[in-house]
Amino acid sequence: MPDKKKKAKHCSRNPTLIRGVGRNSRSKMWAKTYMYERIKKALKKPRAKTETKKNTRFITKEIGGDKNGGTRKVPASRTPKYYPTEDVPRKLRSNKKPFSLQKKKLRPSITPGTVLILGSGRHKGKRVIFLKQLKPSGLLLVTGPFKLNAVPLRRVNQIYVIATKTKIDISGVKLPSRLNDRYFKRKKLRKPKHQEGEIFDTEEEKYSVSAERKEDQVKVDSQILPLLQNEKHLKAYMRSVFTLKNGQYPHEMVF
């Protein structure tokens, strides 16, 4: 069989002197392509006639009268006579959905009754029990219980928790219906205003736990504490604080 002709390897038409530097300049290489001949031929060809678009910004109007007879061009839409001295702020268009309409997906490892480890906040490192996901914020409702590790009913973002394999059955636990996002909204504290007759009023209002929260905390914890007593060492596990020592890596651990 006759030998097949070997295809020549593709290489640049501009030989390189050293790496990054070619023998011919850009203008020389452009001249080699004979593009100027093609441009001349293209210019000689007659262009196809295209319909010119009518100018819609102006409208011709007939003006009557002996002295003002004829037509005049008038702008189609009048410009406003009033211009604001300052730029009025306006919202920019966005394709993103507002936060209230976004879907808050819950991690598959987090289910009601799962023991979570808090990774931030004033209760960092403590273990809590997940109760439910609040809507529309998507935050997690957790409790300590308060009697064991002093963690009250509170909201936590799921990106700041570590889900463990420890779980208790809380299907029989009844939560108060008022436990929602409005329930946990931060209360605005009163600040003293120095007005007439109130010069010496310098005391700021301090936060205090309401009677409703205390009542709900007792109601929820009284149902969860008996469930923790059924399993051995679970109370001590909930009291303990999660810490790391030298040579311990969380990505290698099984929680």
Main beta sheet: strand number and arrangement? 5 strands, antiparallel
Number of helices: 5
Model regions low in confidence, pLDDT < 50 over at least 5 residues: none
Helix content: 10-25%
Radius of gyration: 38 Å
- Mean pLDDT across the residues is 83
Decide which structural class fits the backbone.
alpha+beta
Going across the biggest sheet, name each strand in turn: 8-7-6-5-9
State the total count of DSSP E strands.
9
Portion of residues in beta strands equals 15-25%
Which oligomeric form is depicted? single chain
Calculate the terminal CA-CA distance, rounded to whole Å.
70 Å
Order of H and E elements: EEHHEEEEEHEEHH
- The coarse overall form would be flat
Give the SSE map.
Layout: E1 16-18, E2 21-22, H1 26-32, H2 35-44, E3 58-63, E4 70-75, E5 114-118, E6 127-133, E7 140-143, H3 146-149, E8 154-156, E9 161-167, H4 211-230, H5 234-239
Antiparallel strand pairs: 1-2, 3-4, 5-6, 5-9, 6-7, 7-8
Q: Explain this structure to me?
A:
The protein has helices at residues 26-32, 35-44, 146-149, 211-230, 234-239, and strands at 16-18, 21-22, 58-63, 70-75, 114-118, 127-133, 140-143, 154-156, 161-167. The strands form 3 sheets. A 5-stranded antiparallel β-sheet has the order 8-7-6-5-9. A two-stranded antiparallel sheet has the order 1-2. Helix content is 18%, strand content 17%. A hairpin with a 6-residue loop joins strand 6 (127-133) and strand 7 (140-143). The chain has 255 residues and is an alpha+beta fold.
